[in-house]
Amino acid sequence: MSENRKPLLGFVGKLPGGTALGNAGKTHCPLCMGLFKAPRLLPCLHTVCTTCLEQLEPFSVVDIRGGDSDTSSEGSILQELKPRSLQSQIGILCPVCDAQVDLPLGGVKALTIDHLAVNDVMLESLRGEGQGLVCDLCNDREVEKRCQTCKANLCHFCCQAHRRQKKTTYHTMVDLKDLKGYSRIGKPILCPAHPAEELRLFCEFCDRPVCRDCVVGEHREHPYDFTSNVIHKHGDSVRELLKGTQPHVEALEEALAQIKIMNSALQKQVEVVAADVRTFSEGYIKAIEEHRDKLLKQLEDIRVQKENSLQLQKAQLEQLLADMRTGVEFTEHLLTSGSDLEILITKGVVVERLRKLNKVEYSTRPGVNDKIRFCPQEKAGQCHGYVIYGTISTKEVDPAKCVLQGEDLHRAQEKQTASFTLLCKDAAGEIMGRGGDNIRVAVVPNDKKDSPVRTMVQDNKDGTYYISYTPKEPGVYTVWVCVKERHVQGSPFTVTVRRKHRPHPGVFHCCTFCSSGGQKTARCACGGTMPGGYLGCGHGHKGHPGHPHWSCCGKFNEKSECTWTGGQSAPRGLLRTVAL
């Protein structure tokens, strides 16, 4: 088998203008930030120095794949699949993307070597006038030349020795400064199992590069070929995968661009909304502060008004007390110290004064109270276009002024909900306009005072209260409605609970003649008849009430309760009329 060397992927070529292709910028380790030293390629395609990877903290992972990890290097071989079972394995995290890396059995040093990074590091070193490169043979002196045939970097001494040997006499030697424009100057890739042999063959069965010693050893019966012969097939498969991956890159870049645009738009919108919030808040705060000042001024005015009323009442009572004391003291002194004649002479003046003092009307209770409350939930209108809340109220509910309203106030039916409304007012008879008062309601049957009916009180928050209850039995009930432990106006009162509403079994008609279709035997509870032997009522004939009515009981109200008892006195033919 002859080796056909047609450059396809790993060619050595001089680029125009001295520019190198490949990973020319990827020469520094992301951890130590220095030039790569024995760079290892992780499964996530990030490259890190071997020493840096060994310093990462490993962790234990559970492998349930049942086979070997795909992170092995060139030196690992294909093994038979192991039974699916839980296997403990050591792993690390990629320092660039935090991807989990399952280490092969050989540890970090068994990971794949990144030869592209090695080549880029060498090119980077060449651009620095050879600094950092040492001879590949003696590993001591600085490199001066490179053997293009052996692909080895040599110092001056080793270069001379290289030329003196028969096998290497005619090898091409190139100065390092002449290699700066090349894209690849990497070393030969040697077999990990046979370090003296270069990897030039490819085992198709194991899908990995091998050397000459490998194909006569462990790969003896495996199909293989030169790398230059199989690179087309494998390169094409990689290109196909690349074609499928590149659209994702473009889509992701577009998505990131859209995200960047959206993030920029988001920031602008946030700034706009934040400005609106600040403007609104500042205006609202200003309105609230202004409303606060108004409330405090209103509170101060209420204080001054109440204090003035108290002071006026105090001055009046003090003056009246002084007048009373003067009258009492003078009269007592007159009665105890005056002679009979003196008493009789002074009697007229004293009696008139005392009678006048006794007729003076005054109140022993303060003319004002301390009932001032702040109602934060009540609307207080608008201020600068903002709805504001919070009012100061000096109203106090007066049970004697509270009234009860509703159609069901004095009547109800068994097993049906009855309701009425309590309207709370203050001492001046004005509606309170707010809720929160202590309302107590009791509905008790007169014959079973130990079995009160359950009541519901709904605060409408406007000074009115909706009160409802459902009596279970007919009878007379007593209702108590109290505010602040005092009966309201009209409380207590009685309610007559009637039996459940009885529906009409008849028909609501204008006359029997019309509702029965002209039947003579049909009757009506109104008692009307018609000439010609008709037993029921007819328009304008004897007994017709002159209004639409129920045939069963004769009531005029269509929604009324039926009063027909269905006894012996019921008119004959009534049920027939009902059926019609």
Structural summary, described in words:
This protein has 580 residues and is an alpha+beta fold. It is built from eight helices and 25 strands. The protein has helices spanning 50-54, 115-127, 156-164, 212-215, 227-337, 340-358, 512-515, 574-579, and strands spanning 39-41, 47-49, 59-63, 87-93, 100-102, 112-113, 145-147, 152-154, 173-175, 201-203, 208-210, 224-226, 373-383, 386-393, 403-405, 411-413, 418-423, 439-445, 455-459, 464-469, 475-483, 486-487, 493-498, 508-509, 549-550. The strands form eight sheets. Strands 16, 18, 21, 22 and 23 form a five-stranded mixed β-sheet that branches. It has a four-stranded antiparallel β-sheet with strand order 15-17-20-19, with no helix packed on it. Helix 5 packs antiparallel against helix 6. The protein is elongated and about 170 Å long. Mean pLDDT is 82; it is low at 1-25, 64-85 and 568-580. Residues 249-323 form a coiled coil.
Structural class by secondary-structure content: alpha+beta
Return Rg in Å: 56 Å
Strand content: 15-25%
Mean pLDDT: 82
- Work out the number of β strands: 25
Q: Roughly how many Å apart are the termini?
A: 116 Å
User: What kind of sheet is the major sheet?
Assistant: 5 strands, mixed
Helix content: 25-40%
Low-confidence stretches: 1-25, 64-85, 568-580
Q: Helical element count?
A: 8
Structural shape: elongated
GO molecular function: ubiquitin protein ligase activity; zinc ion binding
Protein name: E3 ubiquitin-protein ligase TRIM45
Pathway: Protein modification; protein ubiquitination
Keywords: Coiled coil, Cytoplasm, Metal-binding, Nucleus, Repeat, Transferase, Ubl conjugation pathway, Zinc, Zinc-finger
